[in-house]
Amino acid sequence: MADRQKIEHFKRINVEKPADIIIRQIRELILNGVYKAEERLPSERELAERFGVGRGHVREAIRRLEFYGVLRTGPQSGSYVTSLGIRALDGLFTNILDLEKEDFASLLDTREILEIHAAGLAAERATEEERETLSVTHRDFEERVRRGDDGLDEDLLFHIRIAGGSHSPVLRSLISIMTPEILSLTRGLEVAGGIRSREALREHAAILDAIISRDPRAAKKTMENHMKGSRVRGNIQER
């Protein structure tokens, strides 16, 4: 058997994220009745000490569980198990854990739908102050690119500003939740760079013009073009 064929017998090692392990433990405790509906979980600090991890990992796990409706968190009151049924909770936990295993193309599929809709709404609803803030963010991105930086943080902030201008809290939250993952995967796939940033900057300028002109159709079209450009620059095929 050729060496190239033999290597196929080795299996890829998938290292779980600490947040996934925390979610699995919380899942078992809830499904086994250790924590019942409306019961309060220990604080982030207590959980971090018990798990032996940083509080950021605990915070990520709680954020994901809260987003899916498994937990609810109130200011200064902690995190509580919701009143969903056990069968519903079991299905939600499966979805939460599978979500992190999706590839970059799947993430972009969802992002495109949200971003295009957000751009159209922002053209209709954004206030003058929000339009000015978006313009400032664009200029910050432009300055970073001029200095030779990739400006990736400013790039993504531009999209968060647009989501805010949509005046849709759910849409804004979804895009904001996805942004850190997109940032991480984008850097991991090395789609950033000088040429990429200059192309993205031109596309941002077209989106900005459409939003300032209060033209929803143009805003959606220019955002769609930007999303397609992102795929090309990342060498990510549409499915």
Automatic annotation (TrEMBL):
Keyword Aminoacyl-tRNA synthetase in annotation: no
Short name of one Pfam family for this protein? GntR
Q: Which GO terms describe its molecular function?
A: DNA binding; DNA-binding transcription factor activity
* Coiled-coil zones: none
* Domain HTH gntR-type positions: 16-84
Swiss-Prot/TrEMBL keywords: DNA-binding, Transcription, Transcription regulation
Name of protein? HTH gntR-type domain-containing protein
